[in-house]
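Student: I would love a firmer grasp of how sequence relates to backbone shape in proteins. I am handing you a single protein, as its sequence and its fold in token form. I am told such tokens are a discrete way to write the fold. I hope you can help me see how the letters and the tokens relate. Take your time, and here it is.
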Amino acid sequence: MRFDPSGLNRAFDKMRDQAASKGKTMADVQGKDFLNEAKKQGRIIAPTPETITATAKRLKGRIKRKPGISPGKELARRIRARGTFARGWFISNITSEKFKIRIWITNKSAESEKVDQIKKVSDKAEKATGGRFKSRLNKLADSLTNKF
């Protein structure tokens, strides 16, 4: 009796194809999850209008501003622009190679790198989404191997 590996090879091919398609979908979902978490953390660290107003009162109109702009106008601009860091996050690039899927998430607001280094928004978002990623990855592996 001879062993025919064609059935085994077909099963492995099917499993590899499912892993490639479902893995890309899972990476997209995880990337969007991280993006939403980064936006959420950005909203948490955003100053409230009361905090901005209290700081302006404490400085008694000596806030940094462009020439010709009154302190009241600068205060209104700062209150209006306070959520810019949180809204600035977006997925800039997604590449997929044979066994790697890379997702680049950037922030287009000015001084975002400095704010992220000080407040560690991306690190907090990574900690929040990391556990969910591992559980989703295990669930994906189970769904691929249970048909085998």
